[in-house]
Amino acid sequence: MASTPTGPRTVGEEVTGPFSWYRSFTPQGRRAFKGAFGGFALDSYDFQVLPLSMVAITAYFHLTKAEAGLLTTVTLVMSALGGILAGGLIDRVGRVRTLMITVGTYALFTVLCGFAVTYPMLLASRALQGLGFGGEWAAGAVLVAEYARSRYRGRTLAFIQSSWAIGWGLAVIVSTVVMDNLAPDIAWRVMFWTGALPAALLFYVRRNVQDAPEVINRLAEKGERVPLTSVFRGTLARRTFFATLLATGAQGGYYTIATWLPTYLKTERGLTVVGTGGYLFVLITGAFCGYVTAGYVIDLLGRKKSFALFAVMSGSLLLAYINIPDGANSLLLVLGFPLGFCASAIFSGFGSFLAELYPSAVRGTGQSLTYNLGRGIGAFFPTAVGFTAGSAGVGNALVYGVVGYAVALVALLGLPETRGTEFT
Predict the structure, then answer these.
(1) What is the rounded CA–CA span in Å between residue 89 and residue 94?
(2) Which domains does the chain have, with CATH numbers?
(3) Helix, coil or strand: residue 46
(4) pLDDT per residue over 226-283, tens digit each?
(5) What gap in Å lies between CA 18 and CA 38, rounded to an integer?
(6) Where are the alpha helices (DSSP H) in 93-198?
(7) Residue 7 DSSP class
(8) Which tens digit of pLDDT belongs to each residue from 340-366?
(9) Nearest to 423 by CA among 245, 167, 157
(10) CA atoms of 30 and 28, how far apart (whole Å)
(11) Taking the model in full, what pTM does it have?
(12) 379 backbone dihedrals φ, ψ, rounded to 5°
């Protein structure tokens, strides 16, 4: 069966305008975009429930900072395993099926976190939530990358990435309302129970979304399949190593900020629940703008230059943020926007860059493995903050995020530029 076009391909055709990347999709490509966008937004929502509830959870279970940090670390470490498992599924059963499996998994175990009566129960539920959390992004990103035209792929995947800010912002709104109106002992449970929201997305994906035609054709073939272990062989082995290192640095920096900044604002800056929500909203607004804007930068400058630019800016801004003197909280608002912008903009390149590093037969494996293994290793950055914060304070310990961005810069030395790569 011959492949049908996955987007406008008429010779001489030119789609123009600020949303030309979206108009270049076929109807099926647009449905795939919506499904992946919603999946990642709700993935973000379910992840952010923990950091936003951390103060209440710490008090309820009488946790140390190290134990609190471990809740995030175990989620991210298990997400590495989930990402590896999902990578194989993406290339063996398809992008859409894997997307549904992962969304269902993280929704189920987020809800179960709300029923935990002991710290080990919460830790176990959060770990299992990480299995679905780890695989969802790669499944959605590969799905959309294969529908997108090469000239628009950077900005298209950046808009997918921007849905993280949408989910984050929704979580902050819900958290502000819930935490301000319910007793802390029940409020954190309610937050986890709202994690059932992604289940509604499954109905949409099941009814409306399918893999790109060339992927459907490949999965239908009965010939010999490319072994998934090929990502560790030949030229792909080098790409896998340095792509994992890049993901480790970027996510180590980001999760340091996402996990500990709410606690830092409440405990060391003395902000109320509503005040913390306001400061975080400035950060999140910057994040959304960063995701969207970076997509155009990535297509203009190329993948590697864009990563380098945003890594340097993120590390520098975080260093400035944690060194704002006491009594100058208004400066936190000023720096919050550019910090959120740059720390999120660096992720806009991953969807296109990782997809372009690997051939179709192992694209899901390569993309999911490198991103999520990097996430698992990067998970130890928030834990390091937790251990260090006990003696040095959360603000000083946030310097681990700066180290993460330095690691990302080093990783770029071993990777090729992939802008303009065509998928066949």
Answers:
(1) 7
(2) 26-196+230-414 (1.20.1250.20)
(3) helix
(4) 676 788 888 899 999 999 999 999 999 988 887 777 677 777 666 665 556 666 777 7
(5) 22
(6) 95-113, 119-145, 153-181, 184-193
(7) S
(8) 899 889 998 998 999 999 988 888 888
(9) 157
(10) 5
(11) 0.75
(12) -65, -25
